[in-house]
Amino acid sequence: MQKNSKRNSKLRFCDIESNSVDTEQEKNESQNNFVELLPLEVTLKIFSQLDIQSLCRASLTCRSWNSTIKDSDSLWKPHCLTLRTVCQREIDNDLQNGYSWRDILLRNYQKSKVKHEWLSGRYSNICSLISLPEKIMCPMDADTWGEIFEAELER
């Protein structure tokens, strides 16, 4: 019975010790997290310097970065406006339907890449369905395909 009490006291001690270490780590992480230390305007200015991929990666860093990046339309809007040169109709429709800038970007990013490749003539010499690069294609609506076919006919 004494063995069990010694064993239990060791477990409790380890639990307390690990909890104090966790608390200390969290405190250090919080002190090193500029998102929690700087004013929101400064944090957003820093994040606004990132490209789309870096912004998405930064949002995976921790919860505070994720919530700051995810909830800030000002970070996503410039990227959406860049895509708008290729996907104007799609982005304008999403805006009218009340989507956030982040959601608009998520909905149209891959489509804009594929559409840009088509419109720039990358796929003009495709002779059959087999020749299409499968992994970069994405579903597109009839209006988008109509724009692509019109561009192909003008070539």
The fraction of residues in strands falls at under 5%
Order of helices and strands: HHHHHHHHH
The count of β-strands is: 0
Poorly predicted residue ranges: 5-22
**How would you characterize the largest beta sheet?**
none
Description of the structure:
By secondary structure, the chain is mostly helical. The protein has a domain of 84 residues. Helix 4 crosses helix 5, helix 6 packs parallel to helix 8 and helix 7 runs antiparallel to helix 8. This is F-box only protein. It is found in: Cytoplasm. Pfam families: F-box-like (PF12937).
Q: Mind sketching the topology for me?
A:
Layout: H1 2-32, H2 34-37, H3 40-47, H4 52-59, H5 63-70, H6 73-83, H7 88-96, H8 101-119, H9 142-154
